[in-house]
Amino acid sequence: MSLLEVQNVSKHFGGLTALHNVTFSVKAGEIRGLIGPNGAGKSTMFKNIAGFYKPTQGDILFEGRSIAGLAPHDISSLGIVRTFQETTLFQELTVFENTLVGCHLQAETNIFSAVLGLDKGKQKRAREKSMEVMEFMGLIERRDQLAAELPLGSQRTLAIATALASGPKLLLMDEPFAGMNPEETKQMMNLTQKVNDFGVTIVLVEHDMKAVMGLCEYITVLNFGTLLAEGSPTEIREDARVVSAYLGGGHRH
Ligand SMILES: Nc1ncnc2c1ncn2[C@@H]1O[C@H](COP(=O)(O)OP(=O)(O)OP(=O)(O)O)[C@@H](O)[C@H]1O
Ligand SMILES: [Mg+2]
User: Fold this and answer.
1) Is 79 near ligand 1, meaning CB less than 6 Å away?
2) pTM, full prediction
3) 140: CA distance to ligand 1 center in Å?
4) Residues lower than pLDDT 70 in the chain
5) If you measure from the C-alpha of residue 127 to the centroid of ligand 2, how many angstroms do you get, rounded to a whole number?
6) Is 234 exposed, middle or buried (0-12, 13-18, 19+ CB in 10 A)?
7) What is the pLDDT at residue 78?
8) What is the H or E stretch that residue 62 is in?
9) What is the CA(42)–ligand 2 centre distance, in A?
10) Which of 3, 140, 190, 247 is an S-S bond match for 28, by CB 3.0 to 4.6 Å?
11) Is the CATH number 3.40.50.1820 carried by domain 1-79+170-181+202-253?
């Protein structure tokens, strides 16, 4: 059985069709690439899966049950967590505090009750979980640094650590490699693989083709909101429709 099934999903914004009748499924344990030119609908797809948007049509199944239209906190408590294209760290908090917020977000529906309302036992477990995640992600030495002071690579690592702190089954990563230099890219590829080896299924939206081709066994391609192609990295690289969609695209990244 697939972990995630996107079935005939369309998303309209007024007269604009951001997604049109898109179907694909992701197996448990995979790193799936989700690629396509700017404006293809990749982030919109993530927002539909994570409950930030409700599909105009179609359904989304997670572990066989429909999640389309559920609230974001209900979806995250089922084990789907998204890292954002834009930075969402708490810049004024430390690395440790950011991961702590990540832990609490799973248990509570709002951040205030999360931070103020936990009993002592839960607080202790959250601190332990934060330490574990920082250790796993190689952030332990930076635990007391403010997020704002971190270099780009570590900020992205922290964003993933924060997502991992909530114990996800499925991680939706939106452009984690954007703006990275080759060394940062290499480190982020290793970390992404490590998170996957740990048992987390990943859908990776990314323009860095080296990263996508290196990490994903199977790739889904969107273009103008529709499913253009699916296949192995080799099949996708050689697919004339994919090549022409990209060449015509004029990338920002
Ligand atoms: N809230 C919204 N209201 C109106 N239009 C939107 C909204 N969100 C996205 N769109 C439009 O939907 C289309 C798909 O946008 P989306 O952000 O999903 O693209 P993307 O594939 O993530 O692109 P990029 O690679 O540049 O991040 C675009 O035409 C965009 O302008
Ligand atoms: Mg996007």
Assistant:
1) no
2) 0.90
3) 36
4) 85, 87, 105-119, 247-253
5) 33
6) exposed
7) 94
8) strand 57-62
9) 5
10) 3
11) no
From 12, 43, 212, 224, the mutation candidate for ligand 1 (largest count of ligand atoms within 8 A of CB) is: 43
pLDDT score recorded for residue 109:
46
Task: Report how far residue 81's alpha carbon sits from residue 75's, in angstroms, rounded to the nearest whole number.
Answer: 8
Looking at residue 107, its pLDDT comes to 53
* Spatial CB neighbours of 174, under 8 Å, sequence gap ≥ 6: 42, 43, 46, 82, 83, 84, 85, 205
Tokens of 160: 């993933």
HEC profile of the chain: CEEEEEEEEEEEECCEEEEEEEEEEEECCCEEEEECCCCCCHHHHHHHHCCCCCCCEEEEEECCEECCCCCHHHHHHHCEEEECCCCCCCCCCEHHHHHHHHHHHHHCCCHHHHHHCCCHHHHHHHHHHHHHHHHHCCCHHHCCCEHHHCCHHHHHHHHHHHHHHCCCCEEEEECCCCCCCHHHHHHHHHHHHHHHHCCCEEEEECCCHHHHHHHCCEEEEEECCEEEEEECHHHHHHCHHHHHHHHCCCCCC
pLDDT score, position 89: 85
At 137, give phi and psi (nearest 5°).
Answer: -90, 5
The ligand with the least distance to the CA atom of 38 is 1
Distance separating alpha carbons of residues 100 and 141, to the nearest angstrom: 16
Q: How far apart are CA 236 and CA 101, in angstroms?
A: 39
